[in-house]
Amino acid sequence: MVTAREARARSHVARPDGLLAAMWSPTEVNVDPRRAIPAVAGHLAAEYGVDFRFGTAVRSVDPPAVSTTAGEWRAGRVFVCSGNDFATLYPEVFADSGLVRCKLQMMRTGPQPGNRPLGPMLCGGLTLLHYAAFDDLEARVPLAARMAEQLPFHREHGIHVLLSQTADGRLTIGDSHAYGTTHDPFVHEEINEAVLGYLGTFADLPDARITERWAGYYPSLRDGRTELVVSPRRTSPSSTGSAGPA
C-alpha cells in the first residue's frame, strides 16, 4: 500500500480528487501485442528453427497425418491450440468442455503530447472484483455491494478499467466482458462511454481523444478453471489435442 502522495509521485495522471491510497506492484509487466507477437515468432524461428506457416488452415488431424490448405503433413505429436475457433477441429470435444466466448470492448488514444510516458499502468476499484486473485480480501464483499448499488451498468457488463501504454506512446483503455457461445458483431457505444466515465474518476489524461475502438474475443472457462487440456485421439498415445483459454 502507498499513500496518496506516493501514488501521485509515481503517476502524473492519477487524479488526486478523493484519492486516499493505492496498491503498488513493482512486478507488473506491460506487453504491446502488436510488437510482442511477431517478435516471439521471430525469436523462435531464429533461435530454435521453428517453421511458422501463416495463412494456413488445418482441415483435419488424423495422427500422424495433418491435412492443411498447404498440403499433407506428418507429425509424431500434434497440439491443437485453436484459440477462439471451436468448430473446425474436434467440435464435439469443445462442445462438452464448458468453454464459451468472451467478448470485450477496447479503445486506444493517439500518442500523448510530447511523447510523455504514462508511467505505471493504472486500474480502479472495479478491477478488484474482476480477478480471482482478490477474492479473499475482506473488503471485497462490501466493495461488491457498493459497486452494485453505485455502478449497476458497469457490473452488468463486466466492466473494469485498465490503462496502459503501447511502445509508440498510445494509451490502451479497456474493457468490458460478455460471455456466451455467440455474440453480436457490434461495438456498443454506451459501454465505451461507461468505461471512459469510470476511467475519468481516477485518471486525467493529457489527450483522451479516442483513435481506435474494437471488440476482441477469447475462450473462457466459467467454472474457475484456467486451462483445458484434453486428448481426443486416445487411439494414438503420441497425439495430444489441447486448448488453453486466456
Short overview:
The protein is an alpha+beta fold. The protein contains six helices and 13 strands. Strands 6, 7, 8, 9, 10 and 11 form a six-stranded antiparallel sheet that branches. Strands 3-4-5 form a three-stranded antiparallel sheet, with no helix packed on it. Strands 1-2 form a two-stranded antiparallel ribbon.
Describe this protein's structure.
The longest helix has 16 residues, at 33-48. Strand 3 (58-62) and strand 4 form a beta hairpin. The strands form 4 sheets. Strands 6, 7, 8, 9, 10 and 11 form a 6-stranded antiparallel sheet that branches. A 3-stranded antiparallel sheet has the order 3-4-5, with no helix packed on it. It has helices at 4-10, 33-48, 91-95, 140-150, 152-156, 189-199; strands spanning 2-3, 21-22, 58-62, 65-68, 71-74, 99-109, 122-123, 162-165, 171-174, 178-180, 210-221, 228-230, 241-243. The model is unreliable at 235-246 (pLDDT under 50). The chain is globular and about 60 Å long. The protein is 22% helix and 24% strand.
Which characteristics define this entry?
246 residues; alpha+beta; six-stranded antiparallel beta sheet; three-stranded antiparallel beta sheet; 6 helices; 24% strand; disordered C terminus
Question: How large is the radius of gyration?
Answer: 21 Å
The major sheet is characterized as: 6 strands, antiparallel
Helix content: 10-25%
How far is the N terminus from the C terminus?
29 Å
Shape: globular
By secondary-structure content and strand pairing, the structural class works out as alpha+beta
What share of the residues does DSSP label as strand, in percent? 15-25%
Mean pLDDT: 92
The multimeric state of the shown protein is: single chain
pLDDT below 50 for ≥5 consecutive residues: which ranges?
A: 235-246
Counting DSSP H or I runs of 4 or more residues, the number of helices is: 6
